[in-house]
User: Which sequence fits this backbone?
């Protein structure tokens, strides 16, 4: 009997046969498992070309967390995977592509996996009105993590007859914030945590930066100056930035790997005459772009937050360009954050454009203590044996990568570089935007879950991570196909 046969035999002893698991799945909804779990549906889903057969469990975790769990019918690997949710959550999205708050890539690896709606229901990307309920707001802030973990463990024990041997959490954007929260506030729950493009400083990013972008890009009538038609000029803007700053890191690879050294000028771009084309900029457009690059300042010129990174221009169409009837995603998120999440008193009929950068900063502090994930004290997480990988696209124009760098440096300042590297690594991904919304100019696909498994289970430190352009998100090769990420502050390298 070979190794794989022995492995499957042992797993079968502990988890039961496929028919047994399928039978348990079909009857799960009829059982009275716990007053904290209400199952509305449990059924087996047949094997597909890209997914194994699984038990699909849908329901609610009290008080009001909607969830979907997917447990393998056949070969459970004995491990648990919990996903975060992006933006203001509100939807259950188990079939998201890539590793952005998705669970299918974990299911394909044999995990019992679960995803949630963050504790409330809304299909409007900018809707945060649910946060007027303090209980719901606290669940979104982080309490969804232990509630989901406890319920999932009970379901796993019911289906497989035992608890998982390893537990992992992964999320991007707000899901990345939740990942960091898990390490900071629930240090004993997960063996490995993957935090992608995390909005760690939600009050700074969602309040200060978002209001600045909205104000900078609005004319006197409230119309966006860089509107949805401006997308035709984005390739010109990106080329202008790359030409000026690509080589600042010592290599010319089509990406800006040292944005902190980069100051983009717009002097080489022709001014528009009476005829506007995609190869020119008006003075009004240049003023807006300058403000976006430079970032928020108050009336005396004090810098309050970072600016949008040069090299991110291709992604502006996704997040920052819209029109008055159909505002950009960034605008909708800003209009949801400040009146409902940013301030403790939830002011009525408030617009993010009203935020006063001279007088309103202190109003963000109370909610910041609830929502932000910036505590560098990961001592309990480290002592519990936990490992965390944080990664961030260097060209992320929505959730700025500087906050991940600042956080990593704060942890190093507290624990020292060597001690920090024992449990926490940061990887920056050149030319990548926010959670794979568009293809990057350089390879940006990687298998973070396998890297984390190897670190947690086999003691293999993540000294490099392969990146490639393949759409096969479950590629298991750790050898560089097209490039390698290296732990911050080292730069990525690419094959010729």
Assistant:
């Amino acid at each position: 009997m070979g190794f794989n046969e022995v492995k499957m035999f042992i797993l079968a002893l502990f988890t039961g046969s496929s028919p047994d698991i399928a039978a348990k799945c079909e009857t799960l909804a009829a059982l009275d498992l716990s007053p904290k779990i209400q199952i509305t549906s449990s059924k087996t889903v047949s094997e597909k070309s890209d997914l194994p057969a699984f038990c699909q469990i849908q329901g609610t975790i009290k008080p009001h967390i909607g969830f979907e769990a997917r447990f393998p019918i056949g070969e459970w690997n004995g491990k648990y995977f919990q996903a975060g949710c992006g933006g203001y959550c509100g939807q259950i999205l188990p079939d998201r592509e890539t590793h952005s708050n998705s669970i299918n890539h974990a299911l394909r690896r044999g995990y019992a996996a679960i995803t949630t709606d963050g504790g409330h229901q809304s299909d409007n990307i900018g809707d945060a009105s649910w946060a007027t309920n303090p209980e719901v707001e606290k669940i979104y802030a982080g309490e969804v993590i232990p509630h989901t973990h406890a319920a999932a463990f009970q379901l796993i024990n019911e289906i497989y007859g035992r608890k998982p041997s390893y537990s992992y959490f992964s999320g991007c954007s707000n899901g990345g914030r939740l990942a960091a929260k898990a390490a900071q506030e629930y240090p004993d729950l997960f063996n490995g945590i993957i935090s992608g493009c995390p909005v760690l400083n939600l009050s700074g990013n969602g309040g200060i930066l978002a209001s600045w972008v909205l104000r900078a890009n609005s004319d006197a009538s409230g119309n966006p100056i860089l509107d949805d038609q401006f997308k035709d000029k984005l390739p010109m803007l990106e080329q202008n930035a790359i030409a000026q700053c690509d080589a600042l890191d010592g290599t010319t690879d089509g990406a800006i790997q040292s944005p902190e050294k980069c100051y983009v000028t717009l002097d080489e771009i022709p001014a528009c005459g009476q005829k506007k084309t995609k190869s020119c900029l008006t003075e009004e457009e240049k003023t807006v772009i300058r403000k976006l690059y430079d970032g928020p300042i108050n009336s005396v010129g004090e810098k309050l937050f970072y600016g949008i990174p040069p090299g991110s221009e291709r992604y502006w169409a996704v997040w920052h360009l819209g029109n008055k009837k159909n505002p950009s995603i960034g605008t909708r998120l800003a209009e949801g954050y400040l009146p409902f999440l940013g301030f403790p008193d939830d002011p009525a009929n408030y617009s993010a454009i009203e935020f006063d950068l001279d007088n309103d900063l202190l109003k963000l502090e109370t909610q910041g203590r609830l929502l932000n994930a910036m505590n560098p004290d990961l001592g309990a997480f480290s002592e519990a044996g936990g490992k965390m990988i944080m990664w961030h696209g260097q060209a992320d124009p929505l959730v700025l990568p500087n906050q991940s760098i600042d956080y990593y440096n704060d942890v190093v300042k507290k624990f020292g570089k060597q001690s920090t590297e024992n449990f926490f690594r940061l990887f920056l991904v050149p030319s990548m935007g926010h959670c794979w919304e568009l293809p990057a100019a350089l390879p940006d696909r990687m298998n973070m879950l396998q890297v984390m498994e190897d670190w947690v289970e086999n003691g293999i430190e993540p000294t490099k991570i392969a990146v490639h352009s393949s759409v096969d998100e479950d590629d298991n090769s750790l050898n560089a196909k097209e490039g390698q990420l290296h732990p911050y502050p080292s730069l990525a390298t690419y094959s010729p």
Residues 204-370 form one domain. Residues 1-14, 476-480 have pLDDT under 50 and may be disordered. The chain is about 35% helix and 15% strand.
